[in-house]
Amino acid sequence: MKIVNVLLAILLTAIMLSGCLYPEERKAKNSAPYQHQLKEVQAAVDEFREATGGLLPIKTRDMGVPIYQKYPIDFNRLSPRYMAEPPGTSYENGGEYLYVLVDVEKKPTVKLIDVKMSEMIRELKLRVEMYKDQHKYPPYKKVVSKNLFMLDHEKLGLKEAPSVTSPLSGTSLPLLVDEKGDIQVDYRMDLAKLMKQSKKTLKPGEEVQDLMWEETPFVPAFSVKYTVNDKQEPVFLE
Predict the structure, then answer these.
(1) From CA 111, how far away is CA 98, in angstroms rounded?
(2) Is residue 191's pLDDT more than 80?
(3) pTM > 0.90: yes or no
């Protein structure tokens, strides 16, 4: 009987340990491909800059393009001399990420944009534009912040409020619309988690959205500016 109890205890301990370890193992497995490929692309970008006197291997974008989407990497300028081909996780090679550069003036750094997020925002933008063609203004439902609004999803023919899945946390992030009719992602939930993890003390009025690309592989694409309130909670910067 004692032997059976010992075996049961060992089995339960093994199950508990496997349950605790599995999320970390899964996280490592899921993040390994793009983390490894980020390093490869970063090395190729650095080598390209050194060989060209500091030029950036990027596609040309209009000046009005938001900063986080402004510098997409042009893999035609990197391949095959600086890397054999675009990484498997890149949109250009059938993957689900756009590779972009941030901090281009000081230290050009390779980061990611989730293609699925971009596609969902593009689709919602089309719905809003079609609605505006008939009604002049987007279907505003509620003011969230200065020049930022919730959309009336029913008037757009949607069953629920529009959102995207955060590539960082897996959380559903609401989609909002600004006064120009552009779609913006509400990153407050992701930023709140990042601020708790980073333990940085931030000042009200100080922009905090860069914390995302500083602490993670992703940029806050389709983002407005954020700051913190007196409770160190992320809020829209007005």
Answers:
(1) 8
(2) yes
(3) no
